[in-house]
């Protein structure tokens, strides 16, 4: 097994005839955190969708633990350890908290263990196991989505805009949970608009502009180019 | 007291069957998001299949039950998911409902094809004649068995949906299909399982109820309308409440039947009312239920509402009148009599465009409005008075506003169900009422079941003759189609479309939503009444069968397949249903097949006489082409041709030559009709191989990808 958990090489993706990802190269080192930054419409969410198998790529390759996974379905990728928390609360609103956690047991964890793992890390969820997920607060919904990631023990965790719509303090506490998941050896790919939130916890970072990765390097390197990338200077 | 227990036992038996049927509906809706109008047709098919195995092939009952409910029903459910339902992701609720309506019509047609409807098929009950006596009350074994089965089904379903991961996944798929896959589950496998279980429950209900309905295809198919009320009491999601609803329905109907003699209601009015009790309960639950029932909301769908051009619309209207005038000159009077009904049906189809196409309110009762229009002509148009035509539009318009009232608090499938309940109420009760006295007057609404309809006279001009009526019908259709286009292009039309997209946004912009809804229903019902008047006058007589709920479904089906927002599609619907196009086409094909291929002749003959199966099969492709074929294939090309004088001249010239040849007797009616069809439908495809419709053609393929593509184009 190589040192890269996830590698994207020359990835192109289209919506109809419009190309939205142009020759994207990215790599995520095993056990590290990679932050992908960029403004609205930069192609960050599409990047995660193609990696999770939700959208086809037009050309290029995606390797998971060295194995080409292009054309794999999302469920097959999930069973191979890819976990995506999509933008805008990745929960089932009409299922209870407990039932949402059961949905993460397709990979062999028992329900009892799943609930124990989730409630240990997110005690607030343990207080309301039978509440419908759609009635939870935004922060609690993100906790539930992260709890799923904890249960499935993924090799690669991808999180899309975790802080969206949340108060800064709540977002910080959720990112702290992500940091703990990463500390357990999970490779993490974070996508964010608000750069400074995630640069502090990333090992490497990249900036996307109009479907292209324009800068890739250490957080310090990337931070130096943030203004020009965001403002087009 | 003995009598009361006896009614209670009988009512509980009926309630148990309703409960199984309604549970299947609720299960399919909660796990797939599709309200399955074909649930009753699936019940019917299950009952016929069991009858075939048990009584025609003489298999032992347990073997027939296992084969029917354990093998064929689940396989059929899987096939449905794989072949039809999978493609409905991202379509509007209208498309979903209409697809299941097409399935219902297709299955009904299939059963009529396989099992001769006029043959008698005895279907004895399970344990016929055996009775258990408890405290002096005699309970038939089959009732005990039905209650036991229902209890078992209730427990298994509850455990499955609440206690198994697979059941929880079934509910999760409705919330977010992609997220289910991201959790490592297979959404398509889960959906297949949902459809399988739903189909098994439908077939089970069919096998249990068939003995009391004498194995007849249509009543069995419509049985599920009775179960709607139970399902709606459970708000289409709660199985326990659904079972309670079934109990209310079964017992209520049975008590009313039992004690009708002691009620102070004219006995003349009762038979139809008793048959309507389930739909009356459905209407009451929908209209006065505690909380508003909102259908699914889809923020972005694959359907589009094109804005027709004035040139195209008036050109089409003028073309229709011109072609009708030419045809009236060459076609025999008998053919003109048959063709006369296409205009009325076409106008009824046009009436669907404002309410369903622009407004997004699924109306399943347009033929009922048409029936009211006919009734007005019967009672007020005895001397061909044009005032009767005004009444034929005005009375249904008022009725339409009343039907629209539930739309203030209902949307989506719930509102569609209220219109279905209205249609069934009209079919089973109002149109069948015998002569009665009310407010000091004698009333005979549908003239004893058959209307005798005089054609209208306008200021001395009579439309009595078949030629005159044919041209008059064409003029009326053209005028109404231009009026519908005018609505679409007006501010009011744009407001309707905006209202469909986002009622909340419209309300915040100051729009009076209630007035807009009442308005569109009044217009639509008025047009349907006018169309009904012309349809009836075309036939010069009408029976209640021609305006039944099933006719409304068939018309809506054909209209949606052709393209719900297009007047051209309404013309197609009128021609297809009024002229019996499939009968003509497949009948001719059967004539062309050599005698030695008897099986092929039989096949085409059957297709020709079975409109339902043709319509049903056509509708199953809706998931792939939700905008319909006229709107996506024909109309865009004709819009371009109208802007090319040379092409227009060529087409007009060819038609002129064909017409001259026909008048001169050089060619017969059939070659003339074929040339006309080829010129109008296929030549535009040659002149403009990739019209602007290419955009619409892009909207096919994987639903998720399609939505993303549509959003990228700003649809």
UniProtKB/TrEMBL annotation, chain A:
Protein name, UniProt field: Unannotated protein
State the organism named in the record: freshwater metagenome
Pfam families named among the record's database cross-references: ABC_tran
Which CDD domains does the protein's record reference?
ABC_TM1139_LivF_branched
Database matches in SMART domains: AAA
**Keywords, sorted A to Z:** Amino-acid transport, ATP-binding, Nucleotide-binding, Transport
* ABC transporter domain boundaries: 6-231
Its family remark reads: Belongs to the ABC transporter superfamily.
Gene Ontology molecular function, alphabetical:
ATP binding; ATP hydrolysis activity; branched-chain amino acid transmembrane transporter activity
Q: Known PROSITE patterns for this protein?
A: ABC_TRANSPORTER_1, ABC_TRANSPORTER_2
- Enumerate the PANTHER family for this protein: HIGH-AFFINITY BRANCHED-CHAIN AMINO ACID TRANSPORT ATP-BINDING PROTEIN LIVF
One GO-annotated biological process of the protein: L-amino acid transport
Automatic annotation (TrEMBL), chain B:
The Gene Ontology CC terms held by the record are: plasma membrane
Keyword S-adenosyl-L-methionine recorded: no
InterPro entries from the entry?
ABC_transp_permease, BCAA_transport_permease, LivM-like
Which terms are listed as keywords in the entry? Amino-acid transport, Cell membrane, Membrane, Transmembrane, Transmembrane helix, Transport
GO terms, molecular function:
branched-chain amino acid transmembrane transporter activity
Bilayer-crossing residues are 12-35, 55-76, 97-115, 139-161, 189-209, 239-257, 269-288, 309-327, 339-357, 387-405, 412-431, 469-487, 518-535, 670-688
One Gene Ontology biological process: amino acid transport
Q: What is its main location?
A: membrane
Question: Has keyword Zinc?
Answer: no
Q: How does it sit in the membrane?
A: Multi-pass membrane protein
One Pfam entry name:
BPD_transp_2
Q: Which cell locations does it reside in?
A: Cell membrane
Q: Which family does it belong to?
A: Belongs to the binding-protein-dependent transport system permease family. LivHM subfamily.
Name this protein carries in UniProt: Unannotated protein
